[in-house]
From TrEMBL, chain A:
Organism: Bradyrhizobium campsiandrae
Keywords: Cell inner membrane, Cell membrane, Membrane, Transmembrane, Transmembrane helix, Transport
Extent of the signal sequence: none
Pfam families (UniProt xref): BPD_transp_2
Taxonomic lineage: Bacteria, Pseudomonadati, Pseudomonadota, Alphaproteobacteria, Hyphomicrobiales
Bilayer-spanning residue ranges: 16-34, 46-65, 95-115, 121-141, 162-183, 212-231, 294-312
Membrane topology: Multi-pass membrane protein
Localization in the cell: Cell membrane
Name listed for the protein in its UniProt record: ABC transporter permease
Principal subcellular localisation of the protein: membrane
Lineage top rank: taxon: Bacteria
TrEMBL record, chain B:
Transmembrane segments: 20-40, 61-82, 102-121, 128-148, 168-190, 220-240, 252-269, 301-318
InterPro entries the UniProt entry points to: ABC_transp_permease (IPR001851)
Keywords from the UniProt entry: Cell inner membrane, Cell membrane, Membrane, Transmembrane, Transmembrane helix, Transport
Taxon lineage: Bacteria, Pseudomonadati, Pseudomonadota, Alphaproteobacteria, Hyphomicrobiales
Protein name per the record: ABC transporter permease
Subcellular location: Cell membrane
């Protein structure tokens, strides 16, 4: 198992074809059939809209590398987005709003990690339970209504540009750089590889796999908190179903990106390309005026195909 | 793995007594919740409310009973709620266009069953982990249903058809009779048939099951198909009870169904649990939600409480099994 991780780290070129072919095929397809798809404005739009998903899919990659899963991410994002909206509305401060969102997100992430690591509850059920909890809390704090009238300082984050580059893209790039450095250039990163591939080795090395696992899930929740700020800024409001199903797009991006669900190896660049693939798919279907329901269904098909191919590869 | 192996090696008789004790605790919980609710709210013990609780519990039970078989094989079906929505919408359309409830019912059951079969194929032939495969299916079905309905609502079904969900027979709601029938069939199938016992064996130790000649793939296909068909049945009851079909009716059904299975003592790790336990689980969950409703707690609290119950149930299950070893 550990060898698989080392091989993929040493030679990521081996894996590029899978996700690159998917992305290339989608771009060629929609370039041919969707009017205006290849215009610079639309392509920039695809990237800006992929920001929130990037912030979820990168930590999801780490979580899946530990043979885990976080189904609660979309619901936690919804809750943190509401927290950002409510707190920034009350205090008129973007930073306090962000702080509240990050705190709530990190708390949920830590609870997820605790349920999985300490209580040993299978990740998909533990996070399904916290999904329900986050969904319920979202309904409770918002009373089922949208939170509107949030300050400009929040909204501007999504529309501002930095040296001509939209701020969301800058945030996504910084996040990617952070995760890349974290996973491939720190000790914590190699521990994450070991969490999926060889947990016993960590124990023999005198480390606590449980604490590391909690940290990985907490990181996921924290990122959902930061993404909550972007979501509130994007919608210019807090909405109790804003992040519904986003965890699934994140899982799709990770699966398409070539991170395996069973072998403890992960590839961040693949996840990034996976995120863009999902973004292109949704944008392209939107341009040829297919309803969002069809987008949802096709992301579902994308995941199943990606996992099937992953299964074929692992048997080969 | 070692847990499963240990479990498989322990003598089967201790299972039964362990199951009996667990069941006793759960019945005690039912009585306790009833007593508390009766004290807190006098309308709880009214005949109308009790029948209401039974009817609600039966809706959860239909979905959860099929799911129980899946969980017994150490799998999970997250697509049941979305399956109910799609089956209800398609069955509703068939009834509207043909005017025949029988045709509609058969279509609903078939639709649910086909979805279940597809889940089974993904899990067996494509070897995708069940929780991911059925989660993908959830979104595929959601997308299909919303696309198919395009924001429309189907209204108004024949009076005879509506009797299935809202009618009474000798003073009891018809869904309660259906509940008793399927409780009986489910229990007999799981405990008294070879196929049922093979399902337990697959959940307890899939490798041993395969080596001892059990056709694992075919049994898994069966289990997922049954789960889908039961979702199809639930869709019919929903359709006739609500007298309308909308794309979003399934969204709040999956978590309660999983909660009912887990509260009922069926282990997520496979091989342990009963259909009767799931019935008790559905009853406990319904009582809690009904109680919240009677005490005028906003319905917004329901997902939060259900989520906590799911986690508590799994944790308790793991704790008792650890102690049993």
């Amino acid at each position: 198992m550990r060898e698989a991780a080392i091989v993929s780290q040493a030679n990521p070129l081996q894996r590029i074809p899978g996700v690159a072919i998917v992305l290339g095929a989608l771009i060629v397809l929609f370039g041919a059939i969707a009017p205006g798809f290849l215009s610079p404005a639309n392509l920039s739009n695809v990237l800006v809209q992929s920001t929130i998903l990037t912030m979820l899919a990168l930590p999801m990659t780490l979580i899946i590398m530990t043979e885990g899963l976080d189904l609660s991410m979309g619901a936690v994002l919804t809750l943190t987005s509401l927290c950002v909206a409510i707190v920034s509305l009350a205090t008129k401060s973007m930073l306090l709003g962000l702080g509240a969102g990050v705190l709530v997100g990190a708390a949920f992430g830590t609870v997820n990690g605790w349920l999985v690591a300490i209580l040993g509850i299978p990740p998909f059920v533990a996070t399904l339970g916290t999904l329900g909890m986050a969904q319920g809390l979202s309904l409770i704090v918002s009373d089922g209504q949208s939170v509107v009238g949030i300050p400009h300082s929040v909204r501007d984050i999504y529309s501002a540009t930095l040296a001509g580059v939209p701020v969301p893209i800058v945030i996504a790039l910084v996040t990617y750089a952070f995760f890349h450095a974290l996973l491939y250039h720190t000790r914590f990163g190699s521990y994450v590889f070991a969490l999926g591939g060889n947990r016993e080795a960590l124990r023999y090395a005198g480390l606590s796999p449980n604490k590391l696992l909690i940290a990985v899930y907490a990181l996921g929740g924290t990122m959902a908190g930061i993404a909550g700020l972007l979501m509130t800024a994007r919608m210019n409001s807090g909405h109790p179903t804003a992040g519904l199903g986003l965890e699934f797009d994140a899982i799709a991006a990770v699966a398409v990106g070539g991170t395996s669900f069973e072998r403890g190896n992960g590839w961040l660049l693949g996840t990034l390309l996976g995120v863009i693939s999902v973004g292109v798919l949704r944008n392209g279907l939107n341009l040829i005026s297919l309803p969002s329901s069809v987008q949802v269904a096709s992301v579902g098909v994308l995941v199943i195909v990606a996992l099937f191919l992953d299964g074929l590869r692992s048997r080969a | 793995m070692t847990d499963i192996a240990k479990e498989a090696l322990s003598p089967p008789r201790s299972f039964l007594s362990q199951d009996a004790i667990q069941l006793f605790y759960r019945l005690l919980a039912v009585l306790l919740i009833c007593a508390v609710l009766a004290v807190l709210n006098e309308s709880f013990l009214s005949l109308g409310n009790i029948l209401n609780v039974l009817r609600q519990a039966s809706l959860t039970f239909f979905i959860a009973s099929g799911l129980t078989l899946v969980v017994l094989t150490a799998g999970l079906d997250l697509s049941v709620g979305a399956n109910v929505a799609l089956s209800a919408c398609i069955a509703g359309t068939v009834i509207h266009t043909t005017g025949s409830p029988v045709l509609g019912i058969l279509t609903g059951l078939a639709c649910g069953g086909i979805v279940g079969l597809l889940n089974g194929i993904m899990v067996t032939a494509l070897r995708i982990p069940s929780f991911i495969a059925t989660y993908g299916m959830l979104w595929v079905l959601n997308g299909l249903t919303y696309w198919y309905m395009a924001g429309e609502t189907l209204h108004g079904f024949p009076a005879g058809f509506r009797q299935i969900g809202s009618g009474y027979l000798f003073g009891l709601p018809i869904p309660v009779y259906l509940l008793l029938v399927f409780l009986g069939i489910g229990t007999l199938f799981a405990q008294r048939t070879i196929w049922g016992q093979e399902i337990y064996a697959i959940g307890a130790n899939p490798v041993a099951a395969r080596l001892s000649g059990i056709p694992v793939t075919r049994r898994l296909l069966l289990v997922y198909t049954v789960s889908g068909t039961m979702a199809g049945l639930a869709s019919i009851i929903f359709l006739s009870r609500l007298n309308s079909a909308e794309a979003d009716i399934g969204e709040s059904l999956t978590l309660p169904a999983i909660a009912a299975v887990l509260i009922g003592g069926t282990s997520l790790f496979g091989g342990v649990g009963t259909v009767f336990g799931t019935f008790i689980g559905a009853l406990i969950l319904t009582l809690v939600l009904n109680g919240m409703n009677l005490l005028s707690v906003s319905a917004n609290w329901q997902p939060l409480v259900t989520g906590i119950i799911v986690i508590l149930a799994v944790w308790l299950d793991m704790k008792t099994r650890r102690r049993a070893q």
